[in-house]
Design a protein that fits this description.
122 residues; two-stranded antiparallel sheet
């Protein structure tokens, strides 16, 4: 491998690791937020469904009485509309796509974006 090719590979690897490293902190924040909202929604739904007054009220009055469920579930739906599920898996999508392209050149990358050179095929 000549010097120019090696330098290009190092530059590509550096940029790929930067992109993956940049996405990791936000991915974990979104995961924590998603898990928290799911737990609050489940707890709110359990509270709402176990309330004996729910059967006597209209759905709107019942939802207003159980604001924990209403707010947490509404926030969860809004975040899914804005693509929180895509932001959670963004780094794995990038590395998977890079692996499929790099496979044609007998290379691969790990989950952190580091290049792995495979032995040449005969």
């Amino acid at each position: 491998m000549d010097n120019t090719s090696a330098e290009d590979l190092r530059s590509f690897e550096k940029r790929l690791t930067e992109v993956v490293a940049h996405l990791q902190p936000s991915m974990w924040r979104y995961r924590i937020l998603l898990v928290l909202l799911i737990i609050l929604s489940i707890f709110g739904a359990w509270s709402w469904l176990s309330d004996p007054h729910t059967a006597k009220l209209t759905i709107f009055e019942s939802l207003l009485e159980h604001l924990l469920f209403t707010v947490s579930f509404s926030t969860l739906i809004i975040l899914f509309f804005f693509g929180i599920h895509k932001k959670i898996v963004a780094s794995s999508v990038i590395t998977t796509r890079c692996r499929s392209v790099l496979n044609e050149y007998n290379m691969c990358c790990d989950d952190n974006g580091r290049l792995i050179l495979k032995p040449r095929r005969s």
